[in-house]
Amino acid sequence: MRLPQIFHSLHKRLQKMFEKNNEGGESGTPSIQDIAGRLAEEQQRLRQLEATTMPKERTILVLGSKCVGKTSAINKFFEREEHTTRPTLALEYSFGRRIGSGKSPQVMNVWELGSLDNAEQLLEVPMRTHGLQQLAVFIILDLSQPQRFWTDFECAYKGLRDTAQKMMEKLTPDLREMLEQRALERVGHQNKEDLGNQDPLPFPVVIVGGKYDIFAGLDPAVKKHTCRCLRSVTHLIGGALLFYSQRIPKLAKVLRDTISHLGFGSPAHPFRSHVTDFNEPLCIWFGKDSWSLIGDTEAQSVERIGATFGADVPQLQLEKQKLQETPDPAKDPGFKESLIDEMRAQKNEELASIMRDVLLRGKFESVPN
């Protein structure tokens, strides 16, 4: 039962109490003490109902651009000390626990996807493990490189959309209808005329523009086109948009509050302001934007938005080899394991010896008789 329904039923019950008492005439009129006592009883029932209906476990999935600060944002939220941040190679899991108002522990599962390359199977892990009902996703993009971030967004969005569609097909009709209704409530309570031109995902998505401290110093035209692009895709998929930098405490706090809100259910509204000016860090909550405010009322799609943005801010087409160029974890001091390193060095020597023998044998065989 949702909270508005709870308050409505509370009002009905109190109204019936007063009507019943008033049937006896003046003597049946409840006193201030009676009203206060009944309100206290109803509030106690409400707290008990909330404790039993509020989810005890929620899931956060974080993905996006490389080296944009995803791990740092998670560590800051959990107040972990950061000496050296190792690169996330595949999919990493952590969790947080909090005692809720009902004195029952709440658990927040946090999954971080290291790379967007061929990540479809990895995306299924948190979705299948915990389900879509209490899932929220943070897509963190690198604003300092507006010529490159679109590929990251497109890859993340398509992976989430395709995986969610597969899972929605396997759900029961009632559960599927509930998720679709939640999505409509999340994005359509203010701009109902835009619902026909939106394609919301069945779970909350927050697009986070990282490294805003660098982005703030870019050319105004680039900033304008980038903000317009991000507002468009955020509105299209029914998400929220937030610019972030760990170097700016105010923005870092908003991101922490947003993770807490979607992971634990508090605070009530983490976005203290509504900002759409491209000269300021954007801050737009679910359902608070519209195509008319963005300035484009035509039918939209991810492909069309990407093509428009690519025309305004040409995207660098990185060669596949460069995209696959990642540091070798075996040479990373953060991944040192003495026993494994010694065995690896021994195997490398054996492989080099075999290669020398093969080359030498090939030279003898190539000599004519």
Automatic annotation (TrEMBL):
InterPro entries: DYNC2LI1 (IPR040045), Dynein_light_int_chain (IPR022780), P-loop_NTPase (IPR027417)
Record's keyword annotation contains Ligase: no
Subcellular location: Cytoplasm, Cytoskeleton, Cilium axoneme; Cytoplasm, Cytoskeleton, Cilium basal body; Cytoplasm, Cytoskeleton, Microtubule organizing center, Centrosome
One protein family per Pfam: DLIC
Keyword terms of this UniProt record: Cell projection, Cilium, Cilium biogenesis/degradation, Cytoplasm, Cytoskeleton, Developmental protein, Dynein, Microtubule, Motor protein
Single GO BP term: intraciliary retrograde transport
PANTHER family: CYTOPLASMIC DYNEIN 2 LIGHT INTERMEDIATE CHAIN 1, DYNEIN 2 LIGHT INTERMEDIATE CHAIN, ISOFORM 2
Protein name per UniProt: Cytoplasmic dynein 2 light intermediate chain 1
Record organism: Drosophila kikkawai (Fruit fly)
